[in-house]
Design brief:
With 497 residues, this protein is an alpha+beta fold. The protein contains 20 helices and 11 strands. It has 2 domains: 23-283, Metalloenzyme, LuxS/M16 peptidase-like (Cytochrome Bc1 Complex, Chain A, domain 1, 2-Layer Sandwich); 306-492, Metalloenzyme, LuxS/M16 peptidase-like (Cytochrome Bc1 Complex, Chain A, domain 1, 2-Layer Sandwich), CATH 3.30.830. Helix 3 crosses helix 8 (193-209).
Amino acid sequence: MKLTVLLLCPLLLAAQNLKEFEKRVTEFNLANGLHFIVIERHEAPVVSFHSYVNAGSVDDPKGETGIAHMFEHMAFKGTETIGTKNYALEKQAMDAVEKIYDRYDAERNKGPKADPKKIEAIQQELKAAMEKANSYVVPNAYTELIEASGGVGLNAGTGEDSTNYFYNFPRNRLELWFLLESQRFYDPVFREFYKERDVVREERRMRVESNPQGLLVESLVSSAFAAHPYHVMPGGWASDIENFRLPEAVEFYKKYYVPGNITIAIAGDVDPKECKRMADKYFSILPSGPLPAPVRTIEPEQKGERRAEVTSPAQPFIAIAYKRPDQLDKDDPVFDVLNEVLAGERTGLLYKELVRDRKISLGAFSQATFPGGKYPNLFLFFLVPNMGHTIEENEKACYEIIERLKKEKVDEATLNRIKTKVRAGVIRRLDSNSGLAEALSFYHVNYGDWRKMFTGIDDIAKVTADDVQRVAKQYLIKETRTVAYTVPPAKAQGEGK
């Protein structure tokens, strides 16, 4: 315990002294609207970069679910000068593919009047054209260039609310990062688009269709959200993925990858003046454009419990979700504390009662914000029944704990311990360059100021036992509850009842 306190003290002091922290942070906007946040950390000659695009799966157009994720894959395919044997010929071949695909779609769109033989002939022509276009590609050239230059942790992720690109470089490769990152946003080449579409389709098959937990979560969100795009997971629906067209990904890129919709955080051994000079040099070429509008669809009020069964022969699971307001709501920090009360690792009520004491669960978890926080979302519970115990038994026990929270206030000792743990968790996130770059960009975009990651700690400290009880009473109610659970195949078919 003493060691933990000693390790956290420097971090706690740094967090408490926001003015000292601010001295190491430099922010600036380019003329095109791109925002940079630079934090100096000179302990080691390395730098972490995090590009935060304020667009995710909620922004996928109708009929194109998963297109934000598809473009994320395209952002690793290189440029006109990286990843090609001969770009002029490659471009001609790619254009030829689209012309043939237009004919293919035109025939398919005839519906019952379409000519099957004509469709088959165009398919063969399309396959040959794709193979020709792909023959000009130098596979993985962009990623291999970064790795050969000392880059590590190269990756990206598409969530409901955002798309993030990140990796780390040695200090002496700073300018190379500015060149490569600016070029993939300015000059992305959508090469191997249809080949990569197959990869994205396979990802969905692996993560959702062949994964009982993935199927359960998909069923949960599609049941909980009737109108809001949170009802579709970031990977998108299979039929949309299978019919993606390259022009659709280009259109998404043009609309959402405007400089004003991108924030870049740089953390490490850097000179802010040097970063500003390079940002002007390399990123100013990105053309400005209008900011895309936020999602206009508001989820209608839920007025009754929703339940969804998922047939699966695997280990049973149950997910329980309650509607809650977005991350800007005044009660957002209360939900964070409530989450720790319920599922704070081995000290949470769910673990202590369901896993440790009663042994009816193998695992019992909660999540304060799901699947995203930009819009009204869900407070999630996830339970894994132990052998010999049922979904129904776990569900009932979970509700008993929730109802007790509504009647009995959390004691001050528990509340103080949880607050300390939540604060430490936030601060620990900032103990690495990559974690800090991620947090700076996230808080700037989602709260309008990166300082919120520090002032948010103060918000946690103000949460009272009365607040926790009030939020539990107000939001953890049957009327806004959605429950998704697995059932074995025999039971789903009406057998063995």
